[in-house]
Amino acid sequence: MFKKGSKLYSVLFNKCPKCHEGDFMAEKNLLKIHKAYKMHANCSNCGLRYLMEPSFFYGAMYVNYGLTVAFSIITFSICTLFLNLSMLESFIPIVAVLLLTLPISIRLSRIIWINIFVSFNPPSNKNQND
Fold first, then answer.
1. What are the residue boundaries of the structural domains of the chain, listed by start?
2. pTM of the complete model
3. Quick check: helix, strand or coil at residue 49?
4. How many CB atoms lie within 10 A of CB 55?
5. Contact 18, 121 (CB under 8 A)
6. Which of 41, 50, 57, 79 could hold 90 in an S-S bridge, CB 3.0 to 4.6 Å?
7. pLDDT tens-digit profile of 30-68?
8. What angle do CA 90, 93, 95 make, to 5 degrees?
């Protein structure tokens, strides 16, 4: 499930969706907020151009919306079921969780979006018949 060739591998390990070798995002550390959203222009291994067309990653906003809704529902469920907070009282923890997970959700949405359009293509081994 987490082996090379699966889209989940590319998403979880920040790898190129085509070769699963080069890094997708330039900065691995999410705590460096000013660099957390920078992407490489091309894959360092296979040369795949990540920004395939102008405004390609605008579609990632739809994925990000889904992720933030999921984070909100999970936070609301925890607040109401385990902490016995009302709907209004749950608002502050939901906003806090969304702000704290912002770097994660933006990075995930971009890599999920490109994985929808680019399939894994393992490098061909020319010396297989030798």
1. 7-117
2. 0.84
3. strand
4. 7
5. yes
6. 79
7. 778 788 888 889 999 888 999 888 889 999 999 999 999
8. 105
Alpha-carbon distance of 105 to 40, in angstroms, equals 18
Show the tokens assigned to 47.
């040369």
Count the helices and strands in the chain (H runs, E runs). Answer: 4, 0
End-to-end CA distance of the chain: 31
- The total number of residues shown for the chain amounts to 130
Q: Which two tokens stand for residue 99?
A: 């702000």
Q: Give the dihedral sign, CA 18/19/20/24.
A: negative
Asked if 120 and 10 touch (Cβ cutoff 8 Å), the reply is yes
Alpha helices in 1-130 (DSSP H): 7-12, 60-81, 91-100, 102-117
Q: Which amino acid is at 21?
A: E
Q: Is residue 130 scored above 50 in pLDDT? A: no
Q: What is the identity of the amino acid at 19?
A: C
Question: What is residue 123's DSSP assignment?
Answer: P
CB proximity list for 56: less than 8 A, separation 6 or greater = 113, 114
Place of tokens 């061909």: 124
